[in-house]
Write a structure and sequence with these properties.
Distance between the termini: 32 Å
Number of helices: 10
Shape: globular
Helix content: 40-55%
Strand order of the largest sheet: 1-2
Low-confidence stretches: 1-6
Largest sheet: 2 strands, parallel
């Protein structure tokens, strides 16, 4: 598959950071967009991302500690690991700290901190991506699924855990879901 060079590689940067790197007229000339995901689904995906991959040697220590902690939690709790991560206040990582400092767990509203021309949804990625290509004036290119986190199909969150995530990700739910 060819790279979609017209998108660039913003990574985990905020929209305002990208905007500040440009002249105002340049930003205004672009079709700006982002994709968001159901916050609970995104949280579970982030959890399994840390379960399935090893920390990189050059990552900050906090990421290595998070990998170790989540992998240990998963080894002990299996499919109940995400529930325990959300509900167990005895963990060495406070859930609010995760949400405020670890990009994979940050609210999406942290990154989408500017008004953009379009917000697509992961849940309808194919259709929204076709719209982005069309609106940007570029031929449609199929997206590759990268970094897919394989989940335990038995993973279920209780109403209490979902409620806590809804409170932690309030702005994401209010803006997009």
């Amino acid at each position: 598959m060819e790279a979609v060079a017209w998108i660039g590689d913003a990574g985990h940067r905020t929209a305002s950071t990208l905007r500040r790197r440009m002249k105002p007229a340049q930003w205004e000339s672009y079709f700006t967009f982002a994709f968001v995901r159901d916050p609970v689904d995104r949280f579970l995906s982030a959890y399994y991302h840390y379960v399935r991959r090893q920390a990189k040697p050059n990552e900050p220590r906090i990421y290595a500690e998070l990998h170790r902690m989540i992998q240990q939690l998963h080894a002990e709790a299996g499919a109940d690991g995400p529930e325990r991560l959300v509900m167990d206040l005895g963990l060495e990582f406070d859930l609010a700290h995760l949400v405020n400092h670890i990009n994979h767990f940050r609210p999406q509203s942290f990154f989408v901190d500017e008004d953009l021309d379009f917000i697509g949804r992961y849940e309808q990625l194919a259709a929204d991506w076709r719209y982005v290509c069309q609106r940007a004036g570029h031929p449609h290119v199929e997206l590759r699924h990268r970094n897919a986190a394989q989940r335990d199909p038995e993973t279920k969150l209780s109403a209490g855990a979902i409620g806590r995530l809804e409170r932690l990700y309030t702005e994401d739910f209010e803006r997009w879901y």
